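Entries read sequence, tokenised fold; example below:

***
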Amino acid sequence: MEPETALTNLTASTEKVNRLLALQKITLTDIEDFTKSERDYLATVSTEMLQHLKGQERDDFINKIAQIIPASTNDQIWEHNHFIIGRAITKLISQYGAMPPKYVIAEETGLSRQTVARHLAAYKTHPEYMAEMEQFKFMATKILAGVFKLASNGDIKAARLYFEMVGAVNKQRPNTVVNEQNNYIQINNTILSQENLKNLSTEQLNQIEHIITGNMGG
């Protein structure tokens, strides 16, 4: 392709994408006649805009292109938000010693307060979060191997932790007192349960009480 022709095509594609981005809402119908190169250029421009836009402007742009965003791009946007929100919370807690409010997290991340609030409210049900937790579970065996290595070298705390992790010992809280109450009285081979007492007459109950109180007083 001649350089002049390529430049003309690029200019035409740029103008086409700019006209598209000027729309209030972009639908799949709006890009039906886009060539592959034009779609690639649109994706490049959109990515650059997402990297530079902040707060409500970023939200508005995502809403504008929501219908033409591939599912993989939506996942990438969620992962990006999750990462920078988590990093901001860690940094702000380290600085101020307290959980930061949402508007401070928004200022730190460049996201809107609404995006931060939505993410914090719903992240646990997002498929990407569940996939992330599976990654941590996947790494559990490596951590277990590290604990085993320390235990093998004589680290008593690591040994106890290892046994607890593999279920070889039961973890119990220290100074735990277990109170067990038996709702019956056994006299030699005779068992007097609470159910038996209910079936006794008033006279019989008085006799038992007299015997017990008499022995205690003696």
Remarks:
- The longest strand covers residues 184-187.
